[in-house]
Amino acid sequence: MQRRLFQRFQTGLQTLIGVISIGVLLVGCAGPTLSDYQDKGPQLTPQAFFDGKLTAQGIVRDYSGEVIRTFEADLTGRWDADGVGTLDEEFRFDDGEVQTRTWTLTPEGNGLKATAGDVVEPGFMEWRGNAIHMNYVLRIPYGDDTLDVRMDDWMFATTADTVINQTEMSKWGVTVGELVLVIQRDTTAR
Fold it and tell me: Where are the beta strands (DSSP E) in the chain?
């Protein structure tokens, strides 16, 4: 009887240790949060950085990490007296495709609601320290059709005039690609 109780206790203990281990692994795998960057600089705010002319260069990776496209982009940002921002983007890909998008960034709560014509689920942009985070669903061309892809967008200021942007693209919770780009403010236009 005591042996049976000890075996049950041992089995229960092993199960508990297994559950705790899985929990620790899941917490360890959790991604960064904005609060992780609140004390880092240089300070990055959308209103200051995305104001005026900017340029960008970047790559698109597929699910395996292979670079499948490169691009250059021109961006122009402006803000009205109510704090509403407009960001015009023109992306020119190495295969000749050109994509344009106009973002409207509207103050909401402690961030900005981000909408655009091909954004089927608006984003919410928040920032702290040297980081901006936004998550939204973008409708992209796919063959003769379109595909709705979740975009998890992180931007980090490396200088007052340079931001590195990394965006994970996923569908049904599975990573299908990644965008990496460097955005630079046009300092000659100031």
Answer: 52-62, 67-79, 85-93, 98-108, 111-115, 119-121, 123-128, 131-142, 145-159, 162-171, 174-185
Q: Which two tokens stand for residue 104?
A: 């409207």
Give mean pLDDT, residues 160-182: 96
CB 43 within 8 A of CB 170: no
Same domain for 14 and 68, yes or no, is no
Which domain range does residue 86 map to? 34-189
Shared domain check, 53 and 15: no
* pLDDT-derived band at 178, boundaries 50, 70, 90: very high
Residue 15, Cβ density class (10 Å: 0-12 exposed, 13-18 middle, ≥19 buried): exposed
In degrees and rounded to multiples of 5, residue 142 shows phi and psi of -145, 100
